[in-house]
Write a structure and sequence with these properties.
With about 350 residues, this protein is an alpha/beta fold. It has helices at about 10-15, 25-30, 45-60, 80-90, 105-115, 130-145, 160-175, 190-205, 220-225, 260-275, 280-300, 320-325; strands spanning about 20, 30-35, 70-75, 95-100, 115-120, 150, 180-185, 210-215, 255-260, 305-310. Keywords: Pyridoxal phosphate, Transferase.
């Protein structure tokens, strides 16, 4: 799919992102590995789609009215909050975003820059009432006394998954003319993987759907054994789940899962930048590493697609900070070693 003419603001500009053939990854595997450039959405990430799906559904159900007072509340690692805040700005609504204080400074600063009311909370496990998701739900309940308010609830609001089924998955199929053998993607809410999986499987049940998981997340174990079990840790943000399966992911047609260590994720982040001119974040690097692994397992001649979730500039203080990386025992790219 491609843009055929002018569009209407933020809401009209989301989606129809380019599908990029990754030269290095393809040559390493003898396959064609393609990545959908979701960092080219107006808010800079794949989460712009979830924002439009959730807010569009809220309008359809009469919970919010464009250009009338309204408040959008969400707990997020950053990118969904950015998409929601920009989409809310474009429809005249206020946004209140609850973010764990451990998230990258760049995302927190950007949220404030675009006018979101940012509430930082300590990083707590999901079982703790102080977890950012629970804090955001309670805040939405409080603010609803002041006027129309929605809790976006990206993890369990199925409007997230459905927008990816209608748009992202359909675009991938069309852009590759149906020539796709596997799709791999990491999960935070599960909306992208589940929605794309449903779209692709409905067109060809033989397309292999593989969940890509960082260390420290239990979703790999869940796919492989049916149990949630996490080991290790990761510096990636916004992906993985240690203690729950989000509602968007339940029942998704997933065939397999792979685990990706931070070293492999970083190698792809730096290679994409240095060799292909693509600046991406950690989840994108993890997705490409997973696509390479899946392609090698399938053998030459196959086509594998994945997602470049967001851009690298949002992680300058972490992924591109030699001191931060050294403290984590991880390598910095040659051009940053000084």
């Amino acid at each position: 799919m491609s843009l055929s003419g002018p569009v209407d603001g933020f809401w009209g500009a989301v989606g129809r992102t380019p599908m990029i053939r990754l030269k290095r990854a393809s040559e390493l595997t003898g396959c064609d590995i393609f990545a959908k450039a979701e960092f080219m959405n107006p808010g800079g990430s794949v989460k712009d789609r979830a924002a439009l799906g959730i807010l569009g559904d809220a309008v359809d159900r009469g919970l919010l009215t464009p250009y009338q007072p309204g408040t959008v509340v969400e707990g997020t690692a950053g990118n969904t909050g950015i998409g929601l805040a920009l989409a809310a700005n474009a429809r005249g609504w206020r946004s209140v975003i609850v973010v764990p204080e451990t998230q990258s400074r760049e995302k927190i600063d950007f949220l404030r820059m675009i006018g979101a009311d940012v509430r930082l909370v300590k990083a707590m496990p999901y079982a703790d009432p102080g977890n950012y998701v629970h804090v955001s739900r309670r805040l939405a309940e409080e603010l609803s006394a002041e006027g129309p308010t929605i809790w976006a609830n990206q993890f369990d609001n199925l409007a997230n998954m459905h927008v990816h089924e209608r748009t992202t998955g359909a675009e991938i199929w069309d852009e590759l003319d149906g020539r796709i053998h596997a799709f791999t993607c990491s999960c935070g809410t599960g909306g992208t993987l589940a929605g794309v999986a449903r779209a692709l499987k409905s067109r060809n049940p033989e397309v292999r759907i593989v969940l890509a998981d960082p260390m420290g997340s239990a979703l790999y174990s869940w796919v492989k054994t049916g149990r949630l079990h996490a080991e290790g840790s990761s510096i990636t943000e916004g992906i993985g789940q240690a203690a729950r399966v989000p509602g968007n992911l339940e029942g998704a047609p997933i065939d397999d899962a792979v685990q990706v260590h931070d070293e492999a994720m970083l190698a792809e982040v730096y290679a994409l930048l240095a060799e292909e001119g693509l600046s991406v974040g950690g989840s994108a690097g993890l997705n490409v590493a997973a696509a390479i692994q899946v392609a090698r397992e399938m053998g030459p001649g196959h086509t594998v697609a994945t997602i470049l979730c967001d851009g690298g500039a949002r992680y300058q203080s972490k992924l591109f900070n030699p001191e931060f990386l050294a403290n984590k025992g991880l390598p910095a790219p040659p051009w940053l070693r000084g």
